[in-house]
Amino acid sequence: MLKKSQKIIVGNWKMNPSSAEEARRIFLSAKKQALKLKNIFIVVCPPFIYLQQCKKLFIGDYIALGGQNICKEHSGSFTGEISVNMLKNIGAEYCIIGHSERRAMGETNEIVALKNRVALSAGLKVVLCVGEKERDINVAYLDFLKNQIKESLYKVERKYIKDIIIAYEPIWAIGSKEAMTPSDIYEMTIFIKKTLSDIYGQEEALKVRVIYGGAVTFRNAEDIIVEGKVDGLLVGHESVNQDGFRRIVKTINEIN
Ligand code: PGA
């Protein structure tokens, strides 16, 4: 279970790797780190098809599994979708919701809000992804972000706030070579906390962890955490690179 003192590192494998054997190797490597390093908590989010085998590879609560998406409906005629109960019953505790790559496929804030409600009321913890496409000189991206957070959390009750992690991911940084600068990340973290505080009040807002995602590597991870003052990282492509991921988590573990 995630402890208050720990930094959270979410590994979003996206649509990788292409074989179960490789998935097993990547997961076992993350598991080894999770067992050893006490200042971090790792959440592995593999493609659905690998969740069951990953679950079979560990017993305990020193690491957790998450889905990369869920269906906004509970059951029924939704070909190709995965329901919240399927995720829960397979042993997942977290779910990434509203990733920009899914939003690009047509997922609106309204759909994201429905998914959040379905996941949270079933007892899953949500890694809610938000982030602007571009930074404009008129700073319209701040209004964009505020609106995205408000709409994505529409009708999400106060009691669930503690189960939400906001992953701030500026879209232009995802999959790119360069992450956002730590000082800009810090600014955005404050802005996100202020937005949450406007919706839920300061006390509740402070319970929400804000993490950063977008081109995180072992080279920039420490600065992002220390100067960006985020509570963790959402790691994409480097999460399926065993050595890269190992170096990221080791670096973060040593900060505390
Ligand atoms: P990246 O992806 O680390 O490959 O930039 C981050 C993400 O999409 O969440």
Folded structure, characterized:
- This protein is an alpha/beta fold and 256 residues long.
- It has a single domain (7-253), classed as Aldolase class I (TIM Barrel, Alpha-Beta Barrel).
- The protein has helices at 20-36, 48-56, 84-90, 100-103, 109-121, 140-152, 182-200, 202-205, 221-226, 242-255, and strands at 7-12, 40-45, 63-67, 94-97, 125-130, 164-168, 209-213, 232-235.
- The chain has an 8-stranded parallel barrel with strand order 1-2-3-4-5-6-7-8, surrounded by 6 helices.
- It is globular and about 50 Å long.
- The mean pLDDT is 97.
- The structure holds 2-phosphoglycolic acid.
Summary, kept brief:
This protein is α/β, with parallel strands linked by helices and 256 residues long.
Written as H for each helix and E for each strand, in order along the chain, the element string is EHEHEHEHHEHEHHEHEH
Spatially, the strands of the biggest sheet line up as 1-2-3-4-5-6-7-8
Counted by DSSP, the helix tally is: 10
Number of strands: 8
CATH superfamily: Aldolase class I
Query: Whole-Å distance between the termini?
Result: 18 Å
CATH topology: TIM Barrel
Structural class of the helices, strands and pairings?
alpha/beta
The CATH architecture: Alpha-Beta Barrel
Q: Which geometry do the CA atoms define? A: globular
Largest beta-sheet characterization: 8 strands, parallel, barrel
Please state the average pLDDT score: 97
Hey, roughly how much beta strand do the residues contain? 15-25%
